[in-house]
Amino acid sequence: MTRKPARTRLRDYVFAALLTLVIIWLISLIWGIARKEEIARSTVGETRAELALLEERRQTLDANLTELSTDRGQEASLRQSFGVARPGEDVIIVVPREEPLAPPERLWWQKALDLIGF
């Protein structure tokens, strides 16, 4: 086999180096696109979750507007927000019943002393 001249070998090395640089550059571009695509996917998920929360809030606000469009709803809102009453109305406070407390549980050694007679 004959050996190529040094000039041809140098040209082959330069060409191989350039091809290697182009391949590395293309790989970095592909990596950047893949990273941007992943960011876009996560953003879409977050945006959909935010949209669902906003839709739920809109439904709640629509229900509140429907309630406040009536005289009874406006009165209930005023009573709840500001604690007002009509003239002649009294405040009724409902107090829950007190539940009797259960006696504390006796320890095993206290039960043993009771059996012995102490």
Gist of the model:
The protein is built from three helices and no strands. With 118 residues, the chain is mostly helical.
Number of helices: 3
- Pick out the low-confidence regions: none
Report on the biggest sheet.
Answer: none
Would you report the number of β strands? 0
Helix content: over 70%
Structural class: mainly alpha
**How much strand?**
under 5%
Rounded to an integer, what's the Rg over CA atoms?
A: 41 Å
- Series of H and E elements: HHH
The separation of the N and C termini measures 113 Å
Average pLDDT value?
89
Rough outline: elongated
What is the element layout, followed by pairings?
Elements: H1 6-68, H2 71-82, H3 108-116
Structure characterization notes:
It is a single chain. The chain has 118 residues and is mainly α. The chain has 3 helices and no strands. The model has no long low-confidence stretch (mean pLDDT 89).
